[in-house]
Design a protein that fits this description.
The longest helix has 29 residues. It is globular, with a radius of gyration of 19 Å. The chain is an all-alpha fold. α1 runs antiparallel to α5 and α1 crosses α6. The relative contact order is 0.20.
Length: 253
């Protein structure tokens, strides 16, 4: 599949990346899916992205890179080892897998967008498309009323502004510059970083497994980034013809 772009294309990517990912994952949590298990499945997205991109011939990982991806998954498992639980139902598990599908497919499709628009412009279209889908979906699930308490309003603002708007802009920018696999591999660090943030915010001590998981995931991230073949995952600029995979080069800095 050649790089492509357009407002409609960006809208479809946004529906997958925003609506399917967040809608399905939050539905799974509402159905009783343990947060640790949900995080484990969602943070395995780099493995899915790497496999899809490699099979499609869009990105190439050396054996060192595949070892890094494997270590990253192990690091996530170790970090969440004491917080995982069995899915309460098949439905909750399927919602979680669907959320993983949205995250991985959105990341891969985002890497194939070919546009002169900046990250803010791309993000605005994709977030708007995802919000439109969720605006129809959400009322069918439960009440939209938010309790007027500081924790509830603070959580809503964090989800809306930081994870819902700021994070996608940064992610789209990184995908454009580094490629899908290198960007998604940063998700390996999310559980460990969350554990560190929970210490001062929630007063939850950092466990030994979180420290060990952080070290393993960091090593996996480093190896995964080093294992990308030069030029792999870079989307050609508009108006140019992509070079064959065997001759594509990264300009010297």
């Amino acid at each position: 599949m050649a790089p492509w772009a357009g407002t409609g294309d960006r809208g479809r990517v946004g529906a997958a990346h925003v609506a399917v990912q967040f809608g399905c994952l939050y539905t799974a949590l509402a159905d009783g899916m343990p947060a640790g298990t949900t995080a484990l499945i969602a943070c395995s997205s780099p493995l899915v992205v790497a496999v899809v991109a490699a099979l499609a011939g869009w990105e190439r990982l050396s054996p060192l890179g595949w070892i890094g991806i494997g270590l990253g998954v192990v690091g996530v498992v170790v970090t969440l080892a004491d917080r995982m639980g069995r899915p309460p139902s098949l439905g909750a598990l399927l919602w979680t897998v669907a959320g993983l599908t949205g995250l991985a497919s959105g990341t891969v499709l985002q890497s194939r967008l070919r546009t002169t628009a900046g990250p803010l412009s791309v993000a605005s279209v994709e977030i708007a498309a995802g919000a439109a889908v969720l605006a129809v979906w959400a009322p069918c699930e439960a009440s939209l009323r938010i309790p007027l308490t500081l924790p509830a309003v603070g959580s809503f603002l964090w989800l809306a502004l930081v994870t819902g708007a700021g994070a996608p802009v940064l992610m789209f920018l990184l995908i454009r510059r580094r490629g899908a696999t290198a960007t998604s591999s940063l998700l390996f660090m999310v559980p460990a970083v969350t554990a560190f943030v929970a210490w001062p915010v929630l007063g939850t001590p950092v466990s030994v497994t979180a420290l060990l998981g952080f070290a393993v995931a960091a090593a996996g991230l480093l190896l995964a980034r080093r294992g990308l073949t030069p030029g792999s995952g870079l989307t050609p600029s508009p108006g140019t013809t992509p070079l064959p995979a065997t001759t594509r080069r990264v300009p010297a800095r």
